[in-house]
Write the structure tokens for this entry.
Amino acid sequence: MVSVQARRAAVAFATTRGVSQRRACTLLKVARSALAYRSRKTVKDAAPLARMSELSAQYPRYGYRRIAIFLARDGHDMSFGRAHRLWRQAGLQLPKKRSRKRVSAGRPRPNAPNGPNQVWSYDFVHDWCANGQKIKCLTVTDEFTKEGLAIEVDGRIRSTRVIDVLARLISLRGAPAFLRSDNGPEFVSRALLKWATEQKIDMALIDPGKPWQNGAAESFNGKFRDECLNMEWFRSRAEAKIEIERWRKHYNEVRPHSSIGYQTPAAFARSLAGAPSAAAGPTGRAAALTRGSAPRPVDRPSRMGHEGKADLADVSS
């Protein structure tokens, strides 16, 4: 069945080919009064559709749900259903990810947190700069609030450097009850285990070959690679440190997180502490201008390529 909109378009086309308007309406079964109809939905959707396109260009790896949260902050409040309709109308669909085997969700996670600052998870992510320098990133996250507590960037990070990063965070936030990590050499060294014992912190090492037990770190690292490392082109290690720290602040203060009701991790942490929630920050280019926390859009991917970088996401050395 042909829609009314398509038949009106056919009438307009027929009139350009010498057919009278009356004759074209009769043949295509369209009322002549319907030719002057203008949809109010098109006018209503024009402003949010334009803003959605701008946000999609600014955050090319975000889907329609996260973009809908940004639109609500800008005054275009709408349901996810309407956001999905506009998203499809603008042709902003992301390519489908390759399906992967999923582990049964019924398996309990050891030492699961029930409050902030109870379990910190940490891991390594690797990448390269355009000048050939290798960068190694130590990521530390709070499993309950989803905050990215720190991303330490350097060419080489040993266990003593891991201790320094954790000690700095403890001086700011207090000591967690557990530290969760894999069995990499930096995380099972005698120096780190001795320091954790002195700080009265228990080590929640995952079982070998079971990365899902460190799911919070794996999830954060995946977003870090997809939204920062794969989108930026670092000319040097110094530039990488600046851009990665900018992305971490954006992740905590601007980016809505689906697992905590589309709040930002920083706002969620403030609500748990009983502090008044600050107003949501600006989005898009306004965030880059006012707070310096929105990642700038780039059109040049890392020269190492996405496939080679994805294979190194979970490497710890």
Observations:
- The first helix runs from residue 4 to 16.
